[in-house]
Amino acid sequence: GIFNRERIFVASPEAARDLLTTNAYRFIKPQLQWTLANNISGEGLLIQEGKVHKEARKRFNPAFSPTMMKTWFPSLWRSTVEAL
């Protein structure tokens, strides 16, 4: 793989769901990937691991419930269209 590292490529929605949700905590991000992502996006939810990630998700989940998304999605859509 790239930089002589093993990589996982998924080719189906079911495999992506398994990797990203069902078994997400079984796969730890390689140090190089973590460092690159951290330099680009900072130490946000996307690159957190384990207990820190679980606690952050618990705090953020209410904002992404279907009910809440219905309230803020129109504004997000308008802003996106205006930016394009």
TrEMBL record:
Domain of life of the organism encoding this protein: Eukaryota
InterPro entries according to UniProt: Cyt_P450_sf
Native source species: Exserohilum turcicum (strain 28A)
The protein, known as: Cytochrome P450
GO MF term set: heme binding; iron ion binding; monooxygenase activity; oxidoreductase activity, acting on paired donors, with incorporation or reduction of molecular oxygen
